Amino acid sequence: MWIIVAVICAALAAFLYIYVFHTSGPNPFDIDTREPLKPLVTQKKEKNKVLKQGFLASKVPEKLDAIVIGSGIGGLGLAVLLAKVGKRVLVLEQHDRAGGCCHTFTEKGFEFDVGIHYIGDLLENKPFRCMVDQLTNGQLQWEPLDNPFDHVVLGPPGNRRTYPIYSGRNRFPDELKKFFPGEEAAIDEYMRLVKKAGRGVWFLGLLKLVPVPLAKFLVYTGLANRLSFFFHMASRSVTEVVNELTENNDLRAVFSYIFGTYGNMPKDASFSMHSLLVCHYLTGAWYPIGGASEIAYHMIPIIEKARGAVLVRAPVNRILFNDNKEAIGVSVMKGQEEIHVHAPMVISNAGIFNTYQQLLPKELQAMPAIQKQLGMMKNGAGGLSIFLGLTGTKEDLGLKADNYWIFTEHNMDELIVTYLKGNREESAKSVPFVFVASPSAKDPTWEERSPGKSTLSLVSFANYEWFEEWKDDKVTNRGTDYKELKQIFCDSVLEVVMSVFPKITRDKVEFIEAGTPITNTHYIGSPKGEIYGADHGTARFSAECNATVRPQTPLKNLYLTGQDVFACGFAGALAGALTCGSVILNRNLHLDAIALAKKTKRVDTKKLE
């Protein structure tokens, strides 16, 4: 009996070794491609030459190796990885500018970021920083946020408590202990669980790289849950875990506050997903110098250097297949005309729901394997964004390079449930949770580019159904009722902001506009107005779901990349790109990035000696 077990374990170890460490394809991280830093380009006309290249059939490169649908970071990241090994890639974007949630827009002289508020894990020469540097040839620069980088605000104005969140593996828990004396054991145990679950995420990537039969074996024998603490804790909600740690309601809220970065209230959120975000910011938080558009601006030239292209105003209306159910290209709508673009490989960064439900022929949508994947996922929460343009510098307005998470009380689950189940007009008057960030205060180039002005990005959640009746109206003319509902949201959220930032008054407001879930659908193509892709609840992070939803789809030559492959946000979407690239190039790019980070650290250290 034990001999059989030993043989099975040895065979399993051999298989895992082969698929984790044995690689044969080209390596996009083979050499350090960082270049000397070039001057920051601030002229919009120059940047738009890169970011706003409109689609024309004549601009489509010949002899394409791949087509990527969607220019969010998951699509651009994958395209750059392929370009670095000589692949000719066409990226198609339905919006009028590249970048997805990394794009910016300008209204009344104010530049607003739509999705990049702060990024963690960017210490020099660490694997994630190394990967980002290589994907931008070292041209994307980062400014650290203040420390504390987050502030958790609980309660109404008359009973408001503010808890600063510091970065630093030791400082984070040490500062919490100062605010919660007697809770040292709970804080230590929380940190132990968070770190252990976060370290176990490597197994999530493994399940998506190994052959399907091996992945299923790991899942159905229970080995995945035994070998990875990430999967062991994935089925437990944040509320369940933190409630076992402490009876202190404010500490429970502080443990849970960051749920807004992935979109599930604590009672529905996977503790493992939550742990990834907490760990992501343990070493600090950063913001891209020059604004979020710098990300796409420095990635696109790498794609173009390999004779590829990134073209906007290029809505893909369907993926093309041959009689053998193999993807062979896409159809792009140019006005009323369909233009077919062919390539031996199609990679979708449009999300699993758009890809399977909108871009596939009906007969392929009905395939059991496709339906199984769709049945394992559900749409994420609808996002509400409010963009505020203000008169005054950051000093005038009391703004810093940090973020505020403002909750009307500590009982977060109850607050969000009541809000989302409420009448839309009444809920709009009492939004229970607002994330507040100032892109202008975080960017050291802002004052030079926009003197005497400041911006705030305010984020919360809202039901798609509250706005669904206007989804088919023209985006710039959705009627008086729609505008009035948005104004109610704007007014109530602005009151909350002014109560926390007393230097911000209504006379300082030059511009205010709300982006609703149907705004998100129009500009970033999210089917239900979600900003984090598919739902990040406990079911999403089961071993079975992650072994099933992989970069390879059930259709040959069609792949998925981005948030829905791995996890949400900038880092999660890039991890999805890295995982998809690993499958396509037949090598473990996660390990390649780690190896290059070690190499560049040695080289950079010698330069300093």
Describe this entry's structure for a reader:
With 609 residues, the protein is an alpha/beta fold. It folds into two domains: 62-141 and 289-377 and 549-608, 3-Layer(bba) Sandwich (FAD/NAD(P)-binding domain); 146-283 and 379-524, Alpha-Beta Complex (Polyamine Oxidase, Chain A, domain 2). 43% of the residues lie in helices and 16% in strands. It has 27 helices and 20 strands. The strands form five sheets. A seven-stranded mixed sheet has the order 8-7-16-17-18-15-19, sandwiched between helices. It has a five-stranded parallel sheet with strand order 10-2-1-14-20. It has a three-stranded antiparallel sheet with strand order 5-9-6, with no helix packed on it. A hairpin with a 2-residue loop joins strand 3 (104-107) and strand 4. Helix 3 packs parallel to helix 14, helix 4 packs across helix 27 and helix 7 (202-209) packs across helix 8. It is globular and about 65 Å long. The mean pLDDT is 94.
What's the overall average pLDDT, rounded?
A: 94
Q: In DSSP terms, counting alpha (H) and pi (I) runs of 4 or more, how many helices? A: 27
Number of domains: 2
The shape, in one word, is globular
Largest sheet, in brief, is: 7 strands, mixed
Structure summary:
The chain has 609 residues and is of the alpha/beta class.
List descriptors.
609 residues; alpha/beta; FAD/NAD(P)-binding domain; Polyamine Oxidase, Chain A, domain 2; 2 domains; 7-stranded mixed beta sheet; 5-stranded parallel beta sheet; 27 helices; 16% strand; globular
